[in-house]
Amino acid sequence: MHTGFLLLTLGLAWLIRARATGAGTDWRDRWHAALQSFVLPPLLLIMTAIATLCMGTQGQMIGIPVGWIGYSVAIAFLGWAALSLVWFAVQAGRTLRQLPIQESVTVYGRLGYVVELPTLFAAQIGLWTSRLVVSRHLLDTLSPEQTEAVLHHEDAHAHYRDPFWFFWLGWIRHLTHWLPQTEALWQELLLLRELRADQWAAQQVDPLVLAEALLAVVSAPAIALPDYGAAFGAIAPSQLLEERVNALLSSPPSGSCALSAQSWLWLLWALLPLALTGLHS
Known about the structure:
The protein is of the alpha+beta class.
């Protein structure tokens, strides 16, 4: 029965991803739809594996005996998930340590770090409590107004704790890269993250100045950085860059990407496998 339980959940996870579609132009709808389609299938798989582990290899489920095969698959999947999390964290830490970060300084009234890099670079580095990191080349090249616009953009990433949340989303991407539309949904979430930060900054500075700074930064050589690092020029493909610029130069988008408590109700579906353990006897 464990094997059938796991296969049923796998089919449901595959179906949710395969049926994921765009949610129009409304920010709230796009953000919620992308997040739900990206996160719910992996959570269902993880919770089903945990539920299988809790039920063990003895007894029955709705009258059907359970056994070792599904139980072993659940252990293997959870072990793979744990090992991939460790590998992902180690790789991310190794990449961040390669940045020549020195002592902290005050950057336009913000505590941050200036790195000696021959490119225009600004990012939030860290997890729950992130650090502002900018290159000296950016400070020397952009005008004060453009630099201030870039820093307001990075302030938004710190406010929403994007590095922390996108670390976990990045792990989910790595763990379930074999599910349909994983990469498409990931790119959508990255784009919405940057659009949200752009909108935040545009409320503090001239949107045209922010757009000019964006074009300058993305035209410079890129620095390899984990996607959760929330770099200012993170979205490089031309069509995504065009969407960011158009959003800045047009009227502010309606709605907010902030998630209300009601928008998390779909997470209850991820707990359904745990509730089904009550059928085990």
